[in-house]
Amino acid sequence: MRVRGRGLPEEAEVELWVVDGRISTEPVAGADTVFDGGWILPGLVDAHCHIGLGKHGEIPLDEAIAQAEIERGAGALLLRDCGSPTDTRSLDDRADLPRIIRAGRHLARPKRYIAGFAVELEDESQLPAAVAAEAGRGGGWIKLVGDWIDRGSGDLAPLWSDGVLKAAIDAAHENGARVTAHVFSEDALPGLINAGIDCIEHGTGLTDDNIALMLERGTALVPTLINLENFPGIADAATRYPTYAAHMRDLYARGYQRIAAAREAGVPVYAGTDAGGMVAHGRIGDEVEALTRIGMSPTEALGAACWQARRWLGRPGLGHGAPADLLCYSQDPRLGPDVLAAPELVILRGNVFRAGVDAAAGRASRPARE
Ligand SMILES: [Zn+2]
């Protein structure tokens, strides 16, 4: 088949053929034109979501499949799963589901993350071995819980000491995996960044010093801006921990400003929704819109969920020979989430999914906010 339209960020004409699930930039005789006019993008990237995670942790595989189908309908064809208790590796055999880059299971300490989500290590010295074991599963990433409420002190606090982090991150890198961490507050950041972590999730507590450190170390940031809207609710629910509640409200109040400062300084920022757990699936369009509120242009924000994120994750765009994972839009996909998350055509591994037929399921189950 053949598609033609304009690409981004160049806005130049793109004409592609799809043969055996791959893109050809060379004409193919007898091709069926399935899209002509409008815009063509590589599949969107949700760089922080969870396929196989529900409100209480592990879920049945058919629910994980439904989550992945919603992402496909919204155009997210490459997902970086930032930790899931459900083993979803069998989904890789499904040609109709988005590609998933996995971080395995969250690594935490007992009672230092949401119950049922993480592998909980009794002693922090177990972390390097646990990281090596998760890396051995071949997902490509490791997910640490960097900070969480310490009910003893009644405030957010780091889970790991600096020396353990260095050994753990070294173990991941020796096993070919990159490492990221959940971090809401200030104190856990220097230890993680100095230990060579590859990415920070959320990052609401970034100080100017830590932003400088990220620049020096080449650390990326996935702020999951739409999930920041859950901070006031988390604070409201923490009636027994007033210091923690006040800290969460303060992080919420300063969050956009701190993420904007990181982006302004030159820290690479990518789009992730944190779908699964507290955020519904299929909201990559909303996250792209949120990124325009930290100073990104609509094109830059879209790149953070598309061509830039693909480059960062080592996955191709629309080049000759790349897997045929692409989206076709009759309207400019920078017009807003209603356009971006509703491509007319989703082409995944060369198979076509049409809006209103397959993709409609995802749109219908996309609540505005949970
Ligand atoms: Zn998450």
Could you walk me through the main structural features you see in this protein, from its secondary elements to its overall organization?
This protein has one domain: Metal-dependent hydrolases (TIM Barrel), CATH 3.20.20.140. It has about 375 residues and is α/β, with parallel strands linked by helices. The chain is about 30% helix and about 25% strand. It has a seven-stranded mixed beta sheet with strand order 3-2-1-4-16-17-18, with no helix packed on it. Strands 10-13-14-15 form a four-stranded parallel beta sheet. Strands 5-6-7 form a three-stranded parallel beta sheet. The C terminus is likely disordered. Strand 1 and strand 2 form a beta hairpin. It contains 13 helices and 18 strands. The site of zinc ion (ZN) has 4 residues, from loops. This is Amidohydrolase family protein. Pfam families: Amidohydro_1 (PF01979). One of its GO terms (molecular function) is hydrolase activity, acting on carbon-nitrogen (but not peptide) bonds. Keywords: Hydrolase.
